[in-house]
Amino acid sequence: MGRQGLVALAENYTAKCGELDLVMQDGSTLVFVEVKYRQSTQYGLAQEMVTPSKARKLQKAATLWLLQNGLSPYDTDFRFDVVAIHQQGNDINWIKNAITQG
Length: 102
Known about the structure:
By secondary structure, this protein is an alpha+beta fold. Helices cover 17% and strands 45% of the residues.
C-alpha cells in the first residue's frame, strides 16, 4: 500500500478509548488513518465499518495521542483518513477527511 507521500509517526497506538491504526505526517498536517479490510463487498464496503461510534472512539484516541505528544488538539492541524481495502488488496481506496471532527 502506498503511503500517499506521508511520513509514518506511529502505528497501532492503543488507549482505553480506542486504537489508532496509523499516525502520519502530511506536510504540516497530522493524519490519523483508520485501515479497514473486507474480502468482499457483498455485505458492504470496508469504509462503512467506520460507524459514528467508531469515529468517536478514534477522535478520543487521537486527542490522547496529541496530548501525550505535547500537542494541542485545538492548535494542531489534523484530519482523519480511512483506507478501505477490498479484493485481497487489489482494490484500495484512500479516503481523505473521511471522519469529520465534532
